Amino acid sequence: MKYSFYLIKRSLEDAVMYPFILLGKACASFLLPNERFDLLLIFPFHHLGGAERVHLNISRALSKKKCLILFTRKSDSVGFRSAFELTGHRIIDISAYTDNKWLYVLNIFCRGAVAGWVNAYKTPVFNGQSNFGYKLSPWVHASIPQVELIHAFCSFSWIRIPFAAFYVKTIMISRQAINQHEAQYDALNIPEGLKRRICYIPNGVVISEERVEKSIQPPFHVLFVGRPDRDKRPLLFAHIAEKCNNAQLPVQFHMVGDLSSSIPSRYHSHLQFHGSITDDQVLRDLYAQSHLLILCSLHEGFPMVIAEAMAYGNAIASTPVGDIPYHIHQGKNGFLFSSVENEETIVTESVSYIESLLQDPASFLEISKTNTHYAKEIFGIAKFEEQYRLLIEEITAP
Fold this sequence. Notes:
Blueprint: H1 3-26, H2 28-31, E1 39-43, H3 50-61, E2 67-71, H4 81-85, E3 90-93, H5 95-98, H6 104-121, E4 125-127, H7 131-136, E5 146-150, H8 156-159, E6 169-172, H9 175-188, H10 192-195, E7 198-200, E8 220-225, H11 234-246, E9 251-256, E10 272-275, H12 280-289, E11 292-295, H13 304-311, E12 315-318, H14 324-327, E13 334-336, H15 343-359, H16 361-378, H17 381-396
Parallel strand pairs: 1-2, 1-4, 2-3, 4-5, 5-6, 6-7, 8-9, 8-11, 9-10, 11-12, 12-13
Helix pairs in contact: 1-6, 3-17, 11-15, 13-16
């Protein structure tokens, strides 16, 4: 389906929704704050996750702005909610109205209400890969700038197509994702001007100035951080742990995230579950004691956990997805699996990489030192924050 067909489909849908949008606009003043904000930030969730941490860091970077944050989907947990509150921005969770498939008309009504409020106060909009944000964009006045953030080439890459023209800037965190989207634009005959709106801002992480000293005395600590998503494949990590423990290697395996219920009980004796960690210092301490982060994902842009693990001197073993091969080089600062799909290969190679680090602790220490330095140079939060501040200043300048 070419770009023109996406636009026709959207126009037909807009015509059906128009009466509900008008009704929502009429009620905007009753549903949203009767005050002016510098920026509207639209995020799906506040639960624990890499994308949510990026959204939190963006909110922190804009702490000198007066922002309104809307959460549009029901979060799995409290997660980062309190951290978002500490940014000082006003927060409204509208997920009860916008994330109910049985009352979808309320979602449309809310689009009208938010659009009415945005237009009344001429508030720029930042859409953090929110479906609600995309469906809102046609109803925002053309004079009001809108910006979108795309974490990876994924289902949203297709959802956003009919709405791409409404965004003055499209931020992407992955160079591979930029290449994939540009190829998509070419295939769909999307105007060249929209391609030029894409800009690259890599994720940043908070890095402690304290020097991380890694012990090379057993046990060797191996870490997995993530959600129980099929794409993340936490069960593969459990297979790796079982195989290493059956081989009596001096290794402990740690899992961060709400994962224990998704891992069959036969593997539990091989794993230490830390649950969802909301305290940043607790997570940093775990990174500091670990030696190797394993990432088994089928798809990624560039995950925050890799930058965080590198900052604390961990070696990385990962599938070669997204921008990971730009930063992880075989044997120098980690390892890339030779396959993304073949799970047996990933398990076998993981055990081999762990054995090689155990047998050559000097090599591990060199990797650890390399990664700590690299993370500070490339992933420091200060550069990330400055890039977002400058971009927001650019689009909001009179």
